[in-house]
Amino acid sequence: MPHQHVPLSFERRPVEQVLARADEFHQEMSRRRTVRDFSPDPVPREVIARCIAAAGCAPSGANQQPWRFIAVADPSIKRTIRAAAEEEERAFYEHRATDAWRAALAPLGTDASKPFLETAPWLIVVFYEAFGYAPDGGREKRYYAMDSVGIATGFLVAALHHAGLATLTHTPSPMAFLPRILGRPDNERPFVLLVVGFPADGATVPAITRKPIDEIAVFL
Ligand code: IYR
Fold first, then answer.
1. pTM of the prediction?
2. Which domains, ranges and CATH numbers included, belong to the chain?
3. How far is the CA of 21 from the centre of ligand 1 (A)?
4. Which of 94, 110, 114, 208 to mutate to test the pocket of ligand 1 (most atoms within 8 A of CB)?
5. Using CA atoms, how far apart are residues 209 and 92, in angstroms rounded to an integer?
6. Which helix H or strand E contains 59, and what residues bound it?
7. How many Cβ atoms sit within 10 Å of the Cβ of residue 160?
8. 11-43 burial code (b ≥16 CB/10 A, e <16)
9. What is the pLDDT of residues 4-21, one digit of tens each?
10. 82: Cβ below 6 Å to ligand 1?
């Protein structure tokens, strides 16, 4: 198949503006916090759809776009997810977690109780395609599927924050109950569950800090 290229649509900005925009974006992202205390206030489906569309603009291996975003507002599905997640989390906190893991989580104050899975108006379960199905039913390889979906999830978290919503990245482990409850096909694997909504009035977050730039970046 020949390559078909089209002109790039790109706005070249003066470098001072590039710096100002980089600074503004950092300021905005620095205000993003993982929230565990959600308001039940509804969020329109259109908002979620636009943020998912932004996530779908992420780069992906061979442009295979191996992501699926299952957005759940249905209270009975949320209830089922909560019950299954809390069962796994009880096993995690009571048996599976190592002492070191427990100690690492202690400052966050998390436990097996996950009321936000029902309270928040939306759960977005992100899946990656471990392989694809060709039109003839044969299996198609996927390249860098998890990596690509990780990047798309970053876009999604940023888009939701930018829109004015709070998120929680939740990874109940193991997550096998998610494809089962959501009826996903056998080529999809759960990647992360995002809890999305407005924070509850008076919500608090752990007093954590971000590593400074010289600790996370090396310029050569
Ligand atoms: N999945 C558990 C435990 C947990 C693990 C990590 I790593 C966190 O950053 C936070 C929690 C839970 O959701 O409670």
1. 0.96
2. 34-167+184-199 (3.40.109.10)
3. 33
4. 110
5. 26
6. none
7. 26
8. eeeeeeeeeeeeeeeeeeeeeebebbbbbeeeb
9. 999 999 999 999 999 999
10. no
